[in-house]
């Protein structure tokens, strides 16, 4: 039985989306665990005033690549950036580069996509569907291609409750949709988008379903493998626990909760979200690359349930700096209770805080932050408040095909071995260290800040109770009677204790 690393020895690998969250982890893992790989061709676009080469240089300088750097200081020699914009005709690859790729690439990993839930349909189709089609066109020209691995999402078919490892018929024939979008102006497309996406929640899942179909159309000509991860979170073990570099999905929710901004969210209480660590997804992807070179496959990544109390307790132990309030979120599936908490725990404190800012001559900002947060959590709500049943037979089969060393160590994707509380703790610390770039040595000060917030809350609650009680007393005879009764009782107790202490002296 050959090992996965042996398979990649001497191979030329093409990767799209290498500058993204998952792409980076894929590049790192290939370089570290398949050291005999010949070259990694990365399709990268220039962006934000940076050339493609500068972007790749910045990427490989980041901490994620520390372990690769330790093993081989010259690892960058294996990386060949290719300038490419996936939404342009011919992927905007120069004819020379296209010829070079056609002549030598053995495996393609297609990770690039727009993952925004609010992406206008035209752009989502352009990148996720047409971009994929064009890449398949290039792949058809590759004379030594052994596998084309497409990264999809477990939610491509989220309009179904039970999802098998098959490609379902597309919601619309992609060719017809592409032709129609060509002549429609953006306003018309915006108007008909809800009708088109039907019972899917957004253009992301809709276009990812179309992309799967487009990939499947090539199955007679190419060795195709499709990976469907659920919600991808920070790394479990590799290259080190808790690595994460973005605010997407749960990470943004965790950070907002850790900062004490997010105090409520609508979600299913039992299994809040189907989370899968990024290193597990990448191990599965590389194993699938090896296996697909011989067979065809649609594996899905087996997820685990994310529980909110682990997040809260973890942020109490390792607080984020300058929290707005103490981390404490109410997860509820009840709409009315949710609205109540939005009002009491989000809008009211935001208004109060903005009022203080105004009074002190500063610019109000809290309400604006909360409006953005509400938009983000409303887009995630669809995924956090429902359950799906997924079939994972192909994943189990693939696991059984690996050598014991690959299965248990190098390409382990058995999520059953994961200790969830420990994983979530590392995830929360990862958001602090790698997303917010906060220093771990500041934790005592952050804890002190949380204690201060707790004292402010106690004081505020006491003042509020006394105030309400005073208002109540002023208006109700019964409240006054209760008040006098309680006060006289306290007085009697005090007199009794004073008398008994005088006697004992
Ligand atoms: C407690 C336990 C509960 C459990 C919790 C369960 C969660 C349950 C999740 C389900 C999730 C399903 C996932 C499906 C799985 C896929 O298949 S794939 C991929 C998932 N895709 C995503 O998660 C993308 C979702 N995000 C979006 O669509 C857009 O970001 C949104 C939400 C529409 C917001 O758009 P926007 O307002 O334009 O903001 P955006 O441009 O994203 O960010 C603007 C800036 O704010 C920053 N920012 C963004 N978010 C934040 C934040 N939260 N805080 C601070 N800054 C932030 C950004 O970094 C950015 O900074 P700059 O780059 O401008 O410096
Ligand atoms: N993150 C998650 O939770 C999940 C992700 N997935 C899938 O995994 C894949 C990777 O996701 P993730 O890494 O999180 O996404 P990111 O948004 O982090 O990365 C997207 C990548 O695509 C590239 N890209 C975007 N537009 C273009 C373009 N026009 N031309 C060239 N490259 C482009 C980006 O390049 P640039 O840096 O230039 O913008 C970036 O490298 C996607 O296919 C996604 O659907 C599936 C399930 C869950």
From TrEMBL:
Mode of membrane association: Single-pass membrane protein
EC supergroup of this enzyme: oxidoreductase
Transmembrane segments annotated in the record for this chain: 458-476, 482-499
Gene Ontology cellular component list: peroxisomal membrane
GO molecular function: alcohol-forming long-chain fatty acyl-CoA reductase activity; alcohol-forming very long-chain fatty acyl-CoA reductase activity
EC assignment: 1.2.1.84
Fatty acyl-CoA reductase C-terminal domain location: 346-438
Keywords: Lipid biosynthesis, Lipid metabolism, Membrane, NADP, Oxidoreductase, Peroxisome, Transmembrane, Transmembrane helix
Chief location: membrane
Subcellular location(s) of the protein: Peroxisome membrane
InterPro entries reported for this sequence: FAR (IPR026055), FAR_C (IPR033640), FAR_NAD-bd (IPR013120), NAD(P)-bd_dom_sf (IPR036291)
Residues annotated as domain Thioester reductase (TE): 15-284
Catalysed reaction, written as an equation: 16-methylheptadecanoyl-CoA + 2 NADPH + 2 H(+) = 16-methylheptadecan-1-ol + 2 NADP(+) + CoA; octadecanoyl-CoA + 2 NADPH + 2 H(+) = octadecan-1-ol + 2 NADP(+) + CoA; eicosanoyl-CoA + 2 NADPH + 2 H(+) = eicosan-1-ol + 2 NADP(+) + CoA; 18-methylnonadecanoyl-CoA + 2 NADPH + 2 H(+) = 18-methylnonadecan-1-ol + 2 NADP(+) + CoA
GO biological-process terms attached to the record: lipid biosynthetic process; long-chain fatty-acyl-CoA metabolic process
Source superkingdom: Eukaryota
A family per Pfam: NAD_binding_4
Described purpose of this protein according to its UniProt entry: Catalyzes the reduction of fatty acyl-CoA to fatty alcohols.
Family to which the UniProt record says this protein belongs: Belongs to the fatty acyl-CoA reductase family.
UniProt protein name: Fatty acyl-CoA reductase
Organism: Hippocampus comes
